[in-house]
Amino acid sequence: MSTNNQPDLQKKGDDPKRTVQICEVPGNDGKMSDSLRWFAFMSYGVGHVLNDLVASMWFTYALVFYHYVMQLSSINAGAVVLVGQLTDAVATAAIGVLSDNVNIYCTDRYGRRKTWHLFGSVLVFISLPFAFSPPVLPQVEGSELNTALYYCFFIVFFQIGWASIENSHMTLASDLTPLRDERTALLSIRYSFTVFANILVYIVTWVVLRSNDANKTQFGPLERKEFQIVILVIMIVGAMTTIIFHIGVREPLANNRMNRELLMTETEAERAANRFCSIFKRFTLYQTAVVYMCSRITVNMTLVFLPMYLQDYLKLTAEKLALLPLIMFLSSFGMSFLNKPMNMKFGRKYTYSFGVILSLGSAFWCYNGSGYSYANYQIYAVTVIIGIACSVVLVTSQALTTDFIGDKTHRGAFTFGLMSFTDKVCNGAVVMAVQSLHCEGCLSYYRDIMVYNWTIPSCLAFIAVISLPYGGRSSIQSNISEPQSNDTTDQTIIRNPVEKGQEVLPSNTVNS
Predict the structure, then answer these.
(1) Of 119, 114, 127, 16, which Cα lies nearest the Cα of 413?
(2) Contact 40, 249 (CB under 8 A)
(3) TM segments (predicted)?
(4) Which pLDDT value is given to residue 471?
(5) Which residue of 185, 202, 351, 357 has the lowest C-beta tally within 10 Å?
């Protein structure tokens, strides 16, 4: 092994993992200081805030805005959301392939993932204000079809931008570090800021509604101005966090070159395993996709239909439609600090099972709850429990996806693109089906939808999780000894074998 601070590529016959620590910034000793390390971690976390703010508005208030405020029918409102989800699905998969395989001069210098992140941010800033505001041309509102098509036009662009940010940011977690626990830490920080972004949206919405006396009524056409104010706040906060991300995160450009060089030094067996179509031959891909898809359905459909459930079934005021989701995400935020230690101590499978149990408990309470006491008091406890469940299943499903990617970071964006494709298509299909089957006289319709959403996906994901060959409790302790090296001393890295079936990451415990 090389005696300098730059890692040499290992030829075939050496350690097949060929992992290198890529989150280091060259300095006096080649390591990142604690302050810079934490600034990079926090900068990575805020890099998804714009998407989280947009997603919170999209999943929680899209149907409310298009159906109750803009007065579109249930089917047309569902069709608008379906167009957005299908666009997001196709764009996520396409951007995943392009991000992994397209390298031009500017992306190689600035970073492939950061370039796509910047591209998506620009699209979102341009198109989002039009998607949640009254049509610029008044004559568009003369026809419901024209109104729906008008919003679909802008939604297509902002969903392409959203997919670009989502895919590049998620994949960057695998590029920044090869260590399993550090990736979990990055995803936990990311989710903490996701919860922060959602909380901010609900607080702003709640304050705006209270200041305009909307707290005494339900949502209607008079709330158009309130949505524009919330969108303005989202744009300002999103711009600031995007700038911090691009300044604070240094994408390891060496990783781009190393993946290409490693491919040139592979054996024939390794080259066959890394072919584009080889990923579809792995059964664990489909298991992981089911877990990711079901987790996203549970979280996203909770955001979509919780306001409909509160307004149509419990008959709560517009203020409560902002307050209760806020409480749900406050509980998620508190749980986000426990996700990493739970995954490290109990493993992915036990942690995910805990989230499934909470989700099923919320469904049971929701189905049996009724009356004044439930609508005014017990519903707060239900939202707290489902908030904790959403935090657990979402972070753990993302961590399982990074486990599946392992050290194959050269196709990380494509893998996340596949996961997101199934997620977006299924979410859009569910929204369209629910809105198409909705009947005005069915008073318990949205209650039943919430119960189904918290039970069926959870059970399917649980079956897929327990059947995965990895994700259990770590039965090993990996030690990495890195003696100080100089020009005449070799660096030595000692690793114990990884857990059987866990072909992915070294499970080193780190203090991140």
Answers:
(1) 114
(2) yes
(3) 41-69, 75-98, 118-136, 148-165, 186-209, 229-249, 289-309, 321-338, 350-367, 379-401, 413-434, 454-471
(4) 62
(5) 357
DSSP three-state, residue 47: coil
- Of 16-30, 201-215, 253-267, highest mean pLDDT: 201-215
Q: What range defines the domain where residue 287 resides? A: 34-250+280-466
Tell me which DSSP letter residue 137 carries: S
Residue 482 lies in a domain: no
Whether residue 209 has pLDDT greater than 90: no
Single-letter amino acid, residue 364: F
Residue 462 reports pLDDT greater than 80? yes
User: Tell me, what amino acid is at 414?
Assistant: F
Q: Poorest-confidence range of 60-74, 229-243, 270-284?
A: 270-284
Residue 132: name the closest of 239, 223, 237 by CA: 223
Quote the tokens at residue 228.
């524009």
Q: Per the domain annotation, does 341 fall within a domain?
A: yes
> 262 lies in a domain?
no
C-alpha neighbours within 13 Å on the C-beta side of residue 503: 11
Distance CA 235, CA 197 (A): 12
- CB contact at 8 A, 508 and 480: yes
Interval 139-184: pLDDT, tens: 888 888 999 999 999 999 989 999 899 888 887 877 777 777 777 7
Phi/psi region, residue 501 (left: phi>0; alpha: psi -120 to 50; beta: rest), is: left
Host H or E run for residue 386: helix 379-405
Query: Per-residue b/e over 145-158, b at no fewer than 16 CB within 10 Å?
Result: eebbebbbebbbbb
Tokens of 461: 């994901």
Q: pTM for the whole thing?
A: 0.67
Instruction: Give per-residue pLDDT as tens, 182-201.
Output: 777 787 788 788 878 888 99
DSSP state of 135: -
> Which one, of 190, 155, 185, 196, lies nearest residue 169 by Cα?
190
503 located within any domain: no
Output the DSSP codes for 323-358. Answer: HHHHHHHHHHHHHHHHHHHHHHHHHHHHHHHHHHHH
**Rounded CA separation 22/179 (Å):** 10
CATH at 69 = 1.20.1250.20
Burial of 36 (0-12, 13-18, 19+ CB in 10 A): middle
DSSP 8-state code for residue 312: I
Q: At what angle do helices 379-405 and 180-211 cross, to 10 degrees?
A: 150
